[in-house]
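Field: COMPLEX_INPUT
Field: COMPONENT_COUNT = two
Field: RESIDUE_TOTAL = 724
Field: MODE = joint
Values follow.
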Amino acid sequence: MKTLTVELGERSYPIHIGPDLLSRPELLTPYIPGQQVLIVSNETVAPLYMQRVETALSAFQVSKLILPDGERYKTLDSALQIYDALLAQRMDRQTTLIALGGGVIGDLTGFAAATYQRGVHFIQIPTTLLAQVDSSVGGKTGVNHPLGKNMIGAFHQPRCVLADTDTLLSLPERELKAGIAEVIKYGLIRDRAFFQWLQNNIEALLERNPEALAYAIEQSCRNKAEVVAADEREANQRALLNLGHTFGHAIETETGYTSWLHGEAVATGMAMAAHMSHELGWLDEAEQRATEALLAAAELPLTPPPMTPERFLELMAVDKKALGGKLRLVLLKAIGNAVLSADFEPAALNRTLNHYSRTASA
Amino acid sequence: MKTLTVELGERSYPIHIGPDLLSRPELLTPYIPGQQVLIVSNETVAPLYMQRVETALSAFQVSKLILPDGERYKTLDSALQIYDALLAQRMDRQTTLIALGGGVIGDLTGFAAATYQRGVHFIQIPTTLLAQVDSSVGGKTGVNHPLGKNMIGAFHQPRCVLADTDTLLSLPERELKAGIAEVIKYGLIRDRAFFQWLQNNIEALLERNPEALAYAIEQSCRNKAEVVAADEREANQRALLNLGHTFGHAIETETGYTSWLHGEAVATGMAMAAHMSHELGWLDEAEQRATEALLAAAELPLTPPPMTPERFLELMAVDKKALGGKLRLVLLKAIGNAVLSADFEPAALNRTLNHYSRTASA
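Field: COMPLEX_OUTPUT
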């Protein structure tokens, strides 16, 4: 097992990464101050892992809530179901909420933990690669609104994150690849050496080689923890973690959070950001191609669904990074060097949107 | 105009108290970082004061949302209406939300500000005495759940509070008295001299003497600001501000947040807490009588609606101060000296509940 720490003063917390962590109560119990625990999971994950977590927590008074699976349930309505469960059991301010599942369960449960009785304790047990390398770390919680993704939320750090790599063995192929998209993101925005490691090890990751997966998770979490420690509330640097996300959110909103996985939309978004960065003359052609090649090697989609440039712009305008009506995008100066900028030639964005609306997958 | 400061380091903010503040843009503009402002108000307050606030903010891009008036609209559903308004206008992360109204509008708008895009700027313009002396100061935001009051919420400090004493001239009689209940609370929990001043000046407050009102608001806000600065997240001392609230919330929940005003329920709750404190031998009889006498002089209700002791206990059990299933109550050792305790003789609580269930107002 490897342990990293997210350094946030009094609110610092560990990320444990390794096999068979779900059966180790000593990793969880130091972070549960009261007696009451509510584990929130979904219909896919609960049958696989709920029993093991419950057994590990047999010293506590454990309740469970099992929600349907899917991004379309990441709503205020699902949060209300969590509040209902907490209140029906009269759970108090010392309650600990545990998210057992992927990014949707983590973001939603974290939001309920942030807002139940003005904030209760929270533990993340991410069971997808995407959640292990990204959403479970850093304290961003939230739900979607019909007009935009993650528009309702709060910052609320977990007290501990348990990334059990064994849970990835049961992960559907498509979700594994979607998680790899976020792994590639860290290489692109701030870690050129890791990008090169990924170029050499992408096959091993797709084959779920345990050592390769553990290394990729560790490097991803280390990068994320460094960024979060430096800029918890996204005044600045943290926004770079959203490479590909503004394009990607537009795709997800357009398709109603159903047909595209988040990581798939981010992959296409990163390809679009790389294209635009090249159009601006910021990213050279070889690096744009290397970016596309790595995404393609990970068997990720590189083209958006049929959408006009106008529709893209409309959906991108509600992005949280927009300021004073001006769109800000994360773009690449080089592999391993991303910037957040509103100061780009708009024609480059139009050329990219036109290019992709012509090549759109049907 | 008097100005107090809530000392919270980087998040410190001023409370301005005095007449005719609504027309002074210079009190607001330093706290509005972007261009976009959403003023949230209700159908009662908006016709009286919205125009003046809009005029003061003519330099900004101002939107308005006017909700129905009443505690029963302090729900997640109303918060959703605020999110809808923000997103329909594509308001960004630099947006400032202004609450123009009483405690319901303040708590609800504050919650929306805490959770829109993980937190935007927030200004309180309280227009009731209760909101000016209590709910607008200290950063507690939230909405009610059918199973309990303020069960969903967050801590989110405003950037400034503007208590314009002129707005109290239009306040209905009952709401003025309900506000005085919270004013009396500060005397009871931590300020014996202020309690004595109130004994001598209660008539002047009921007659809305401007100097008396301004003094009462200032002393109340000073007391509240000191408590919040010492214990922002209610680890300890801040819970004392809830004197009378556990009994009071049970009354409000039982009556569906309709027939009783919050301050009225708190007044009855404080009488009940004083009774129980006397039953425990903590508060002497003369002080219990002085407490009841001051509440009666303020023409506040001293007896709950018909409720059995069992019903009271059931509703009190969901209180946020409960810990590990054990009820904690704010009780009085003396006027000006409150304590939070779970360590009381349960028989005293039963005697108080029995006493009040016999004397209940029909």
